[in-house]
Amino acid sequence: MSDYVELSNLTKTYPTPKGPAVIVKDFNLRIKKGEFVTLIGHSGCGKSTVLSMLAGLNEITDGGIILAGKELAGPGPDRGIVFQSPCLLPWMTAFENVMLGVEQVFFTASKEERRQIVEYYLTVVGLGDAMHKKPAELSQGMRQRVGIARAFALKPKMLLLDEPFGMLDSLTRYELQQVLIELWRKNKITALMVTHDVDEALFLSDRVICMTDGPEAEVGDILEVNFPRPRERKAVMEHPDYYKFREHLIEFLEIHAHKKHAKPAAPTAVPPGPPPSPVSPSKLSTLDSDQIGKPLKSETAPV
Amino acid sequence: MKSFKCDWLILPLLGALIVILGWHVLAGKKVVTKDAEGNVASEERKGAIPALPNVVETWESSKPYIVEPFAKRGELDQGILRFTWLSLVLVAKGYLIALVIGTPLGFMIGLSKFFTKMTDPIIQVLRPVSPLAWLPLGMVLFLDAGRNASELAALFTIAVCSMWPTVLNTAVGVRAIPQDYLNVAKVLKLSRFKTLTKVMIPATLPYMFTGFRLSLGIAWLVIVAAEMLTGRPGVGGFLWQQYNALIYEQIILCILTIGIVGFILDRLMSVVERRFKTA
Ligand SMILES: Nc1ncnc2c1ncn2[C@@H]1O[C@H](COP(=O)(O)OP(=O)(O)OP(=O)(O)O)[C@@H](O)[C@H]1O
Ligand SMILES: [Mg+2]
């Protein structure tokens, strides 16, 4: 399949009092139609920045994004967005929140058809009984369900998820991951998700993109996750490759954690360590990056 | 102090009682001295503040206005609630003008930095000007309006004085609209009109109502000044007339009425305000 989304040399620079800060530099990524891609990386490396540029809510300093053959210009309802906090309008009910977008996108549909769309998606995410409640009357998890329903109800070309389950307890998170993956499978929507949760990334995605640390963050490593679909949590966790993948991702994050910690120290104070040895291909078969180093020391893993 | 049962009722009553007692003690009293035959020799007022009527005198003299609150004996001799009603109508008109002008103005100031910079000094200069200063200007402005001149001048004064809290609070509210909400509008590509009605106005409402409440307080405050200077019938006009007629008892009646009405208005508005805060 051809590339559906293309981020080429995407760069973001913020002006700061100390001069321009290059947060993301030459970020290149191609996503196929219907693919589920996850972005992981350390806090502050620029994941949300990439996502918000895709959403059109953050200006692109350099480079460009092509979605379905067209260069992106500004925000639009063709990208469904689910952020960490679902950004519902508190004066509207769940139904009205979803309807606000449905009215915009399906303006030719009849009132009845629109109502059906809204009710369908709210029911699918499990809010059949609570759709006429205001966000304040809903739990955090229920609000996020509304957010997911809203994103899917617009039949977007692409789904952008920024730590959508980050604020939820693990049980709710599992439930919502299930809701999300079902909807995604049925609607075949191309998705890019940011997460901190390695297990979540492995369960949901076709590919995991590891971002290097900022400033000047870019794509560091790409991991193909070829578990068969439809996936079941138990089957995924028992898959022979699961722990290998998991190790690999954690290792990647760890290396960059070490790099980050070493950065503020004076360079002369630390004796230069051995250059990072390449990861043996036998250890990580599906790895398509050869730039990965092992952790320098076997300190206790910050997991 | 530990709170006890009914303290919400007893403590305010106690406070009121102390104030009334203090007033009564300080107030003057009519002292009649009689000669041997029992004829009135001299009549004078004594006390710490001889001219200040005491509680009993105030009540006696105000009774007709309170007992028959809707009576109309003359243009400036009406029951106290009738006066209050006249004042309320005038205030309502002026207040509405203030809201109709102030709310959009606040929105524009909140939306545009350009507009903020342009209007800020003007607002800061006009805001502290007393109603007593605005009223003569109002009279001049509506000099040609003939019989309506005094009403228009009063409305102008009320509107100009009470507008500012609405303007400033609305502007603050617009600036405080969370970016998240605006992003929702952007992502959905809502039209300007829909963005305004579905996102910006609902998001600003709590601030707007704070402004409305403060504005109403000021509008009511201004009424006395407006009625005094224009001589219109109403609580303020009545107060001024009775002062000029040396009937001091009713000044106190008017002050109490103005205070109680203002308090009730504020309470009503804060109920409305709270409804929008939680919504
Ligand atoms: N308006 C701004 N001006 C300057 N720097 C900014 C601005 N917004 C974000 N940054 C910087 O950009 C960097 C990347 O931010 P971003 O929110 O994309 O990180 P992230 O990877 O999403 O982090 P997290 O995992 O914690 O959500 C941060 O270091 C942040 O300080
Ligand atoms: Mg982020």
Question: What does it look like?
Answer:
The complex is a heterodimer of chains A (303) and B (279). Helices cover 33% and strands 22% of the residues of chain A. Chain A is α/β, with parallel strands linked by helices. In chain A, helix 2 packs across helix 3 (111-124), helix 2 packs parallel to helix 4 (140-153) and helix 3 packs across helix 4 (140-153). Chain A is globular, with a radius of gyration of 20 Å. Chain B is mainly alpha-helical and 279 residues long. Chain B has a single domain (72-278), classed as MetI-like fold (Orthogonal Bundle), CATH 1.10.3720.10. Chain B has helices spanning 7-26, 55-67, 80-111, 113-126, 131-141, 149-175, 179-187, 192-230, 235-244, 249-278, and strands at 29-34, 40-46, 72-74, 77-78. In chain B, strand 1 (29-34) and strand 2 form a beta hairpin. At the A-B interface, helix 2 of A face helix 7 and helix 8 of B. The structure holds adenosine-5'-triphosphate and magnesium ion (MG).
The fraction of residues assigned to DSSP E strands of chain B is: 5-15%
- Tell me which CATH architecture of chain B applies here: Orthogonal Bundle
Rg of chain B, nearest Å: 25 Å
Number of helices of chain A: 8
Q: Give the strand line-up of the largest sheet of chain A.
A: 6-7-8-3-9-10
In terms of per-residue confidence, which ranges of chain B show pLDDT below 50 for 5 or more consecutive residues?
none
Can you write the helix and strand succession of chain B as a string? HEEHEEHHHHHHHH
| Ligands present | adenosine-5'-triphosphate, magnesium ion
Largest interface: A-B, 21 and 16 residues
How much is the average pLDDT of chain A?
83
Strand elements of chain B, count: 4
Q: Tell me the count of domains of chain B.
A: 1
Can you tell me the residue ranges of chain A where pLDDT is under 50 for at least 5 consecutive residues?
Answer: 262-303
Taking the alpha carbons of the first and last residues of chain A, their distance comes to 36 Å
How large is the share of residues in beta strands of chain A?
15-25%
Largest sheet of chain B: 2 strands, antiparallel
